[in-house]
Amino acid sequence: MALLPFLIAPVLAATPQVDSVPEEFATIQLAIDNGKSSIIEVGPGRWAGARVTRPVVIHGAPGAKITMGADPRVVNSPLGIGFALDERASGTEIEGFTFACSASKSLDVGVYSSFSRLGSVADDVRVANNTFVGCFQGVTNAGRSTTTCRPKAVTGGEYWLVEDNTFDGIRSTAHNGTTGGGIGVFLFNAQNVDVLENDFVGAVQDRRDFTTGGVVVAGCRDCAIVGNDFAVTGATGWWASISNMGYYQQGAAATERLYVADNDATTDSAANLDINFRSLDSYDVDFVHNQGVTFIDHSWCGDKRVETFDSSGGTSPTSARR
Question: H helices within 187-309, ranges in order?
Answer without folding.
Answer: none
